[in-house]
């Protein structure tokens, strides 16, 4: 028996009579009514559970091959598999392929961007060694680890980026910057403070002298060369790998992980201007 949701009048002849009544009077259909039979429920989840159990979907739903969220007690539906996966990730922090739940959205996002799902698709343009992230490949070049591009380092990478970034989208305009890679620092045993070898710039102590020297010759105390392209973020970075990692993390929403991976080749090789 189909009822009007406003006046309660019953229509034994079927839903079409009830629908005509509602349209002509401006009355409402019952809340949470099954698309096929005359049952209606107190909540949308109860309605969806009933329709899911009995297959009571209308013809349009059947033709669109509705998919369901795979989590118990969730009755979300969508027309495409990708929409369902996106729902499971964003609402439940659930990876369907691994059948694994995560504590928060950031954790599952890191998981989905890891080697487990991404593989190693970012190749060095010089030696073709593959990396999972653009950050890994950039660090490989910036620290001079590429056997076919040993002349590249932090200074040279910055000069390449500046030549492709005339408007300063990610690079700072340091016109008189002389470079810092050729400057070497060497601490002595006099830096021992009784507990470790101490950096006089930041007071960090190291258990071994070579650890302090590695710290002094790293970008830790060098000038910031890059900035986030999103003005409201305002973050500065001392290496290209650091800003690429920031962008890949999507922490400020300046761009997407996939976009960074597609564009990283334009940053270190080729003639295209940098864009995100």
TrEMBL record:
InterPro entries: Znf_C2H2_sf (IPR036236), Znf_C2H2_type (IPR013087). Keywords: Metal-binding, Repeat, Zinc, Zinc-finger. GO terms for molecular function: zinc ion binding. Pfam families: zf-met (PF12874). Residues 32-61, 93-122, 197-221 form the C2H2-type domain. PROSITE patterns: ZINC_FINGER_C2H2_1, ZINC_FINGER_C2H2_2. This is C2H2-type domain-containing protein. It comes from Lasiosphaeria hispida.
